[in-house]
Amino acid sequence: MADAARRAAELRGLIDRADDLYFNHDAPEISDAQYDRLFDELLGIELRHPELITADSPTQKIAGKPKSSFPAVKHDFPMMSLDKIHEDPPEAKEDKAGAKLELFFARCAKETGGRVCLAMPKLDGMAVSLVYIDGRLSCGATRGDGLKGENITPNVRHVRNVPQVLQNAPPGKLLVRGEAMIARGRLAEINRQQREAGRPEFVNPRNAAAGTLRQLEAELVARRQVDFVAYSLIGEGAPPTAAACLQLLEKMGLQAAEPAELIADAESFRRYAELIARRKEDYPYDIDGIVLRLNDSAAGDAMGSTAKAPRSMAAYKFLAEKARTRLVGVDWQVGRTGVVAPVARLEPVKIGDVTVAAATLHNPDFIKDRKGLLIDPNAAEGEVPDKDKGLRIGDLVEVVRSGDVIPKIESSAARGTSARCRCQPPAPPAAARCASTASTSSAAGPTAPA
């Protein structure tokens, strides 16, 4: 029991830190897959030991506090998280995802008498809520903590596909929920401009969109071509089904998530998931899964919600794409928050349709002895390494990519045989080692002098 309490407290700290970096600084330190493992471990401990659940546990609240640089605005309806169902790896002996999907459909049927759900791509962007009154844009806000967000209306007015006035909108107040994103093809040009200006680059399109919408320079939103894709509509004038809401969003002049499909069981869902998986690299924006929601909106509302998520919805998360390659060097770069972080140089490897030659190493402790991903200097070629030893140049590593421009080293494979495998990655640059300006013991890595 004492061990479980200590581990739960440790996990709460790790998850809170990851949430803060992701939502408030647009500078994620760990991959989505690593975050989900931490969250699932904490959830498992709390299910086994309910007495360890705290009011401020990440399992009991929606992540993301509003930033103080923008005024706070209260959401008329909470912007909640979604419970996740993870795609099973190919080697899995059990169909856990299929069982969870059938359980979801069965729960909907038992509580509402219907199991027809709308499936749509899960877009990897920044959640935004738009408020229209009598068809005119009144407010734009971030999700924030789900109850209150940041009022970013001036910036939203510069999003190129957000209409200031809707076409043939029903009277009264309408809430449009969706994702703000930057197309993958735009990121290289934006990062080129960042380099020329001496500013840190964005690691992925989601961070670029979030960072842009949180700037006080509203015109930057238009220059970087931020887009908005809507996925839900709330209000007295909204149609009674999720599918009809998507159709009305498009008729009013908004871009809606597509392709969407009505499904009622795990088998039809699997066919839809295979379709999206095949097409997602052709889509202009990052997709990391599929959203399921009960099509009957009133029945979905009647199902209620947990502290974090509506019970009538779920998010199916795709497996991250992986490949093995060799670590050939380590560079150090200053991130957007001033943290000096190591970046792995890799032998180029194809992951999906992208050639990867670099991966984040998070911080110095990741290289040395933490995260449970590091390897044994005495392991033979092809041998599964011991996880208590440090990462070394020449090692074979497994790299994961989930839409990130800078992917992550997810796990270790084996020690290389060349002489360079005896070399530890180089120490941080002098500025980062200086005790007066940086601390390499920080979990976030050393901080560069201003």
Short description:
The protein has helices spanning 2-24, 32-48, 96-112, 153-156, 184-196, 205-213, 219-223, 242-251, 266-279, 297-303, 364-368, 430-433, and strands at 72-74, 84-86, 117-123, 126-133, 136-142, 148-150, 173-181, 227-234, 261-263, 287-294, 313-317, 321-334, 340-351, 354-360, 396-401, 408-414. The chain is α+β, with helices and mostly antiparallel strands and 450 residues long. The protein folds into 3 domains: 2-61, Helix hairpin bin (Helix Hairpins, Orthogonal Bundle); 78-317, DNA ligase/mRNA capping enzyme (D-amino Acid Aminotransferase, Chain A, domain 1, 2-Layer Sandwich); 321-433, Nucleic acid-binding proteins (OB fold (Dihydrolipoamide Acetyltransferase, E2P), Beta Barrel), CATH 2.40.50.140.
DSSP strand tally: 16
Q: Name the CATH superfamily assignment of the largest domain.
A: DNA ligase/mRNA capping enzyme
Structural class: alpha+beta
Taken together, the total number of domains comes to 3
Structure description:
- By secondary structure, the chain is of the alpha+beta class.
- 28% of the residues lie in helices and 24% in strands.
- It has twelve helices and 16 strands.
- It has helices at residues 2-24, 32-48, 96-112, 153-156, 184-196, 205-213, 219-223, 242-251, 266-279, 297-303, 364-368, 430-433; strands at residues 72-74, 84-86, 117-123, 126-133, 136-142, 148-150, 173-181, 227-234, 261-263, 287-294, 313-317, 321-334, 340-351, 354-360, 396-401, 408-414.
- The strands form four sheets. It has a five-stranded mixed beta sheet. Strands 14-13-12-15-16 form a five-stranded antiparallel beta sheet, with no helix packed on it. A four-stranded antiparallel beta sheet has the order 5-4-7-8.
- A hairpin with a 2-residue loop joins strand 13 (340-351) and strand 14.
- The protein is globular and about 65 Å long.
- Residues 369-388, 417-425 and 432-450 have low confidence and may be disordered.
